[in-house]
Amino acid sequence: MEATGGQIAKETLELAFQISNMLETGLDRHTLSLLIALIDRGINPEPLSAVVRELSSPPSRTQPPSAFSSSAKP
Amino acid sequence: MDDTATVDLVRELVLRLLSSGGRSSTASNNSDAAVRYALRLLSSRMSPSVIPDELSLVESIKRRLAVSGRSSSALGFADLHSKLSARAPLLNRWALLYLLNSLSLDRHRPESSPAPGLPFLPLHLPHPPRTSASSIAGGMAGGGVFLVAKDPENIREIALREYADLFMEDNEVSESALVRDVLYACQGIDGRYVRFDRSTDGYDMPESLKVPKPTRSIVRRLCELGWLFRKVRGYISEGIVDRQFDIGTVGQAFCSSLQDELVDYYKLLTVLTSQSANPIPSAGSDSGGGAGNYLSLRRLAVWLAEPTVRMRLMAVLVDVCGELRGGAMAGAIHSHAQHGNPLVQEFMGRLLRRVCSPLFEMVRIWVLEGELEDVFAEFFILSQPVKAESLWREGYQIQSSMLPSFISPLLAQRILRTGKSINFLRVCCEDNGWVEASGEAVAHVGATTQRGGLGYGDTNALEALVVEAAKRIDRHLMDVIHKRYRFKDHCLAIKRYLLLGQGDFVKYLMDIVGPELSEPANTISSFQLAGLLETAIRASNAQYDDREILDRLKVRMMEHGDGDRGWDVFSLEYDARVPLDTVFTALNMKRYLKIFNFLWKLKRVEHALTGLWKTVKPNYINSCIFANESFGVKMQFVSVLRRLQVLWNEMNHFVTNFQYYIMFEVLEVSWAHFSDGMNSSKDLDDLLAAHDKYLYSILEKSLLGEGSQSINKTLFVLFDHILRFRSLADRWFEHIHELQHRRNKSKSKSKGELGKVGSLIDGGRKALLQFSRDFFGKMSEELDKVAKEYSAALHDFISQLPLQQHIDLKFLLFRLDFTEYYSRVSSNK
Fold it and tell me: Where are stretches of biased composition, namely Polar residues (chain A) (predicted)?
C-alpha cells in the first residue's frame, strides 16, 4: 500500500502541477507540493494564497519588511 | 497554529518563496519575521468564509478560461480535474483549486488597479467579523463565487437587517408559537392563541391579536384540518363509547378502521411537534445550512396537505354514515369509493375491506350453513318465525334497505334462496345431506370455510361461491323432493283423483254414490261415503295404486245449508303433508277443490245424459210401445219421442264437446306443460312457479277464473236445464211404461174374458186416446218449453264465449259451433 500511496501522491502532484500551469500561477513543483501538504493539514486556502502572494511578489512593495516586523510583534 | 510539522512546512514554504522571489538570500531574522508573519496570517482565519463548493468553482474557472479566449485550456482543465477526482478522492480539491485560482487571478490582475485588501491585511489582523466580511467582499471581488461577491458596499445586508426589525415589530406572536398552536388545533386541543369558536364552528385567533393578515389566513386554512379531525373523532367516540349497542358490527368495524387511520395521523403530528421545537430562523439571518429541520407555517402547510385530503374524506364518510347502519352504511361508503384518484381509491379500499368484513361473513355463513347471525339487524335477510308449511314462502325475506349497493338484487335473490333451501331441508325434510353439498361448493370455488375468507373487492369470489353453493344445494333439494318425497307421484295422484283422470274409478264412484247424493245433504253420513269410496277404489284399477297415496284420498263434506242436495256438498280431498304442503298450500288445495266441483258436476251431467239415452234410444223396445194402439196415439208418441231424441242429441253434442275440451285441451295440455316445467326447474322457487302456472291455466281455461264469472253462471244454468230435462224425461217414460203396462195387463185381461169386458175395451180405447192426447200434448208442451229454454241458454253461452280472453276458448267455440249453426240462428233472430 505504501508504494501505491506514493504512486498516487506522485500522480496527484503531477496533475496539480499541470493544472497550475494551465492557470499560469507560476508555481513550481516543490512549492506546490508544500502547498498541497499544508492544505491537507487543514489550512484555509484563503490566507495561504495571501501568504504566497505576499512573499512571492517582487520587492517593489511599498511596505518594507522592517515596517511590519515592528507591528508584527504582539 | 497547531503542531510543529505544520510550522516546519510553513517555514520551508516561506524560505522557498523568498528565495524564488528573486531576492538575495535573506538574513535569518528576515525569514523568521516572514515566517512569523505568515503564521499570523494563516491563523487569522481558520475556516473558509465561502462555501466550499467544488463544482461551482470548477465551473467558474472554466468560464474564466473560455471567456479569456483559451477554450482549449478550459477543456484540458476539465479533463485534468476529472482525472484528479478519480485519482485522489481524499484530497481537499476545493482548497487546492481555490488556491491555484486565486494565485492565477492575482498574477493576471493588472498592477495599476489597487488591491485595497491586500496591504490592509497585516494591519487588520485582529478585527471583528463584521468588517472582515466587508473586506472579504472587497478582496474576493473577482474570485468569490457566492453570496456577498456582488456587494461591495453591503447594501443588501443593511436592507435585510432593516426588514428583520420591521418584521419583529409587526408580529406580536412569534411564528413558532403559532406553529405549536396550529399543531394543537390539529389534535383538537385549544392552544394559547388559536381556539375553537363554537359560534362560528371553526378554529380562529381572537381579533385582538396583532398578527398580519397573511399569517391569519394561513392559520385559518391549516385549522380546517383541526375541524375535520374534531368531527371524525366525535363520531368515533360516539360510536364506540356511547352508542355501542346501536351501531352494529358494521359501524364498529368502520369506527375501528377510522381509528387506525388516525394512528398514522398522530404519528405524523408527533414528528411535526418534535420538529417545531427547532428555532425558526428569523427573516434577516442566514439560512445557511445546519440549522436543523425547523417548522414554519408554510412548511407546516406543505406537510399537512396530504393528511388534510384524507381527513376530509373521512369527514365526508362520517357525514354520510351519520344515521345509517349495516348494509346501508356499507352501500353508502361504497358509492363514495368510485373515485379516480389512486390515493383515494387505496384509502377507500382499505376502509371498505374492514367495514364489509362482518357483512361478508354473514353472507358466507348464511350461504353455507343457513344460519343467520344477525344481532343488530344489519343483514339484508330477515327471518320471521312461521309454521313449517309456510317456511319457504314467508320465512325469510330480503330487506332491501339494508342491501349494499355492490351486491346486485339478482345475487341477493340467489343468496336468499340458498339459505332458505338449507333451512327448508333442515326443518321440513329433516335432511342433512346439504352439508356435503356446501362443503363441495366451497372446495370447488377454492374459498375457505373459515372466517375472513372473503373480503370487499372480492365480489366476484363471493358471487362464484354463492352460485356454486346455490347450484349444489338446489340440486340436492330437488333430489330430496323428487326422490324421497315423490313429488311427481303425488302430483299425478292428485290429477288422477281430484281432477277425475282415472275414468273407471270416477264412473264406479258416481254409480255407487249417485243415489246417496240425491238425498238432502244433512241426512248423508260421511262414513258411509268413505266406505263407498273404498268400494269404488277396489272396484277399479285404482286398487293397484300405491297404498300411501290411496291413504291420502278422503271424502269431504262441505258446509251445507238447507235444501242442499248431496251433490252440492260432496268432494274429495288429498292430504299433502310436510314438506309437500309448501307446494300444496291451503290456497292451492282450495283451488283444486273448486276444479273438482266443477268437473264433478260436469261428470254428473254427462252421467245423467248417458243414463237417459238408455231409455230414449230408438231401439226395438221403444218402437214396441203403443205398437198395437191406434195410429193417432202412436203417431203422437213417435213424434214426441223424435223431438225428445233431437233435443237429447243437441244436449249431448254440447256436453260431449265441452267435456272433451276440458279433459284434453285443458287438463292434459296443462299437465304436459307442468311436467316439462317440473323436469326443468332447478330449484324450489321454479317448481312453485310452475305449479302455480299449471293451476292458474286450468282455472282460466275452464271458465272458473274471475274474469269468467258471468259465463260460468250461464254454464251452470245450462247444466241445470239438462238435469231437469233428464228428470222430466225419466218421469215421462215412467208414465208411458206404466201406461203400457196397464194397457198390456188390461189387454191380457180383456183377452181372457172376451164377451164381458168388451165395453171396457171400447171404453178403454177412447179413454186411452183421450188420455194419451192429453198426456202427449202436455208432454210436447213441456218439451217445447225445455227446448226453448235450453237453446236460449246455449245461445247465451255461445255468444259470451268469444268475449273470453283466453285463446283456447276459441277452440271450444269452434268445437261447439263449427258449422256456425248457432251463430246463424242467432243472427237470423
Answer: 57-74
At B127, list the grid cell.
478585527
- Euclidean distance between CA atoms B62 and B73, whole angstroms: 8
Cell 507560476 belongs to residue: A26
- Three cell numbers at B225? 384540518
Instruction: State pLDDT tens for residues B133-188.
Output: 444 444 444 444 444 455 555 777 788 888 877 776 666 677 778 888 888 888 87
Walking along chain B (829 residues) 10 residues at a time, the average pLDDT comes out as 77 81 55 82 76 84 84 86 82 84 78 43 42 42 46 73 74 75 82 75 72 81 85 83 70 86 88 78 51 72 87 88 80 83 85 83 82 78 76 80 82 85 78 74 63 60 81 83 81 83 84 80 80 84 77 78 72 77 82 87 87 78 68 77 86 87 87 89 84 88 79 85 86 80 69 47 64 80 86 83 75 78 68
- Please say whether the beta carbons of B589 and B578 come within 8 A: no
Look up the ipTM and state it. 0.78
Q: A26 vs B107: CB contact, 8 Å cut-off?
A: yes
Residue length, chain B?
A: 829
Inter-chain CB proximity A25 and B104 less than 8 Å: yes
Residue of A46, A49, A73 to mutate, interface with B, max B Cβ within 10 Å: A46
- Which among A8, A55, A62 is the top mutation candidate for probing chain B, defined by the most B β-carbons within 10 Å of its own β-carbon? A55
Give contacts of B123 with chain A, Cβ < 8 Å: 71
In angstroms, the CA B600 to CA B799 distance is 25
Cis ω before B579 (30° cut-off from 0): yes
8 A C-beta contact, residue B413 and residue B445: no
For B22, the closest chain A residue by CA position comes to A58
- For B483, phi then psi, to 5°, come to -85, -50
- If residue B778 lies in a helix (H) or strand (E), which one and from where to where? helix B758-800
Give A34's contacts in chain B (Cβ within 8 Å).
9, 12-13, 16
Interface of A with B in 45-74 (CB under 8 A): 45-59, 62-63, 65, 68-69, 71-72
Cα dihedral: B238, B241, B242, B247 (round 10) = 70
Nearest residue of chain B to residue A26 (CA atoms): B104
Q: Are B583 and B565 in contact (CB under 8 A)?
A: no
Closest CA to B231 of B305, B315, B126, B166: B315
User: Which residues neighbour B136 within 8 Å (Cβ) at sequence distance 6 or greater?
Assistant: B49, B117, B144, B148
Element containing residue B698 per DSSP (H, E): helix B684-701
Residue indicated by cell numbers 307442468: B674
Contacts of B37 (CB under 8 A, 6+ apart): A54, A68, A69, A72, B122
Contact B227, B202 (CB under 8 A): yes
Chain-centre distance for alpha carbon B674? 31
Give CA torsion, residues B746, B752, B756, B761, to 10 deg.
30
Nearest to B740 by CA among B621, B596, B564, B827: B621
* pTM, 2 dp: 0.61
Q: Which of A16, A23, A31 sits opposite B104 (nearest CB)?
A: A23
Cell reading at B238: 360516539
Looking at the partner chain, which of B87, B107, B122 has a beta carbon nearest the beta carbon of A71?
B122
Q: Cell triple for residue B324?
A: 345509517
Return phi, psi of residue B94, to 5°: -60, -50
With beta carbons under 8 A apart, name residues in chain A contacting B38. Answer: 51, 55
Q: How many CA atoms lie within 13 A of B333 on its CB side?
A: 36
Strand partners of residue B382: B397
Distance of CA B259 to the CA centre of its chain: 29
For residue B28, the model assigns a pLDDT of 58
Q: Per-residue pLDDT tens for B710-724?
A: 888 888 888 888 888
Residue pair B397/B422 in contact (Cβ under 8 Å)? The answer is no
